[in-house]
Amino acid sequence: MAKPGSDSPKVRWMDAVRYAIETQSLVKLTLSGTWGSAPTLRRVLGRLVDLKAGTRISLVFRHDTRDVTQNFELSEGLAELSRWLDSGAASGFLRSTDAEWELSGFADGVGRLREMPPPTDLTSPGVRRMHDRVRNRTVALGGSTWLRDLGVTTPDGSVCAGKEAKFRQIHRFVEVLGALFDELPPASDGSVRTLIDMGCGKGYLTFAATEHLQKPGMGKWTIRGIEQRPELVELSNRAALAAGFANLVFEQGNIQNAAVASVDVLVALHACDTATDDALARGIDAGARLLLVSPCCHKEVRPQMKPPPPLEPVLRHGILLERQAEFVTDALRALLLEWAGYRTRVFEFVSPEHSGRNLMIAALKRSDSSPREDRAQAVRELAWHYGIQTQRLAERLNFQFSTNPQHPPPPVPLRSVGENLL
Ligand SMILES: C[S@@+](CC[C@H](N)C(=O)[O-])C[C@H]1O[C@@H](n2cnc3c(N)ncnc32)[C@H](O)[C@@H]1O
């Protein structure tokens, strides 16, 4: 598990905050200072809260005569804290169950960071609750035979060296999925619902979903993992048998044409490049109520991109072009999903310091799932803006991109721009 890094004191303090939140080891968080934009504000206090929608950062803004509380998604909460830290905080204090971090001395513009061991008395009810929650979750999954069989934990239930990130990802996935399941309508007349994990690899997340769906009140489920590599399918089926999951099956197949008669929830994490689009299209076609993808290897759109004029000088840098291509691809996906009758959320799934492949798109089917023409227009505008002619999800949904004759012709291809500027 990556510990806070070695940048400036502020960055390291924020790293420590992020780490404490990720590992659910946060005990106390306080920013003190004077903020010109909020003259009566004295402190910002943070803690984690478990809401029906999932874990949130709760920030209490303590003013002279009142408290204002706001709950944020984790990434938003971190951004919010960072904003208040940068705009007038004189000090920051963080206590986790691992350590205390005191940030102070901003007079020189840099600040000082002091790390101390946590107090020995960690017996207050709040801290115990935090400990219990982390321990219970760890034991619950740490004791699973499938985690051991897939090489994530040792026979005594501890996480194998080098598998901490995977273990954290699995937990986070269960948290995200659990919160999204709360938003699904209940199964009609107790029927069996289906979750399909496309490009499931070894099936870490398929197993995690299965374990979650065994819980009381979750209804009856069949879970299918589709994977092209036969050796992984065999390994996962053996582990499913050992775990006693009779409702879980792994099948060798291709995302593009595996049989999908019906699906309620479709998951595809890190299915490479346009395999994400194929998976989304399969789910949409089959009427899935929830689609959850974490895209990776955005290769399709980048070679087509022609920068709009203001971006010409910057998109000659390969890394910026790559990030822009990721942004545009995932933005198009989210818009296309909305056009196709879904509500979407795009968020960071795990902290970027643990994995760069951390973007997640969740799409819940709207009750009125008629196509949204405003989103169709937005897709066309965005594609036109970057000179994009084709995108796999659009293709699979028979969505036509068209150039807008009212606009001037798209700018020159990126290669020529780079050549001119270098
Ligand atoms: C990076 S792994 C991710 C595995 C798993 N979803 C996870 O997040 O742990 C991608 C997996 O998708 C599989 N895959 C990629 N394209 C596929 C396709 N078209 N059909 C079936 N499997 C595919 C690969 O073989 C690989 O095991």
Q: Can you offer a commentary on this structure?
A:
By secondary structure, the chain is of the alpha/beta class. The model is unreliable at 1-5, 121-140 and 407-422 (pLDDT under 50). It contains twelve helices and 14 strands. It starts with 8 loop residues before the first helix and ends with a helix. It folds into two domains: 9-121, no CATH class; 137-416, Rossmann fold (3-Layer(aba) Sandwich), CATH 3.40.50. The strands form two sheets. A seven-stranded antiparallel β-sheet has the order 4-3-2-1-5-6-7. Helix 1 (9-22) runs antiparallel to helix 2 (74-86), helix 5 (164-181) packs across helix 6 and helix 9 runs antiparallel to helix 10. The chain has helices at residues 9-22, 74-86, 125-142, 145-149, 164-181, 204-213, 230-243, 275-285, 318-339, 373-385, 392-396, 414-421, and strands at residues 26-33, 41-51, 54-63, 67-72, 89-96, 100-104, 112-116, 193-198, 221-227, 248-252, 265-272, 290-296, 342-348, 359-365. The longest helix has 22 residues, at 318-339. It binds S-adenosylmethionine (SAM). The site of S-adenosylmethionine (SAM) has 18 residues, from helix 6, strand 9 and strand 11.
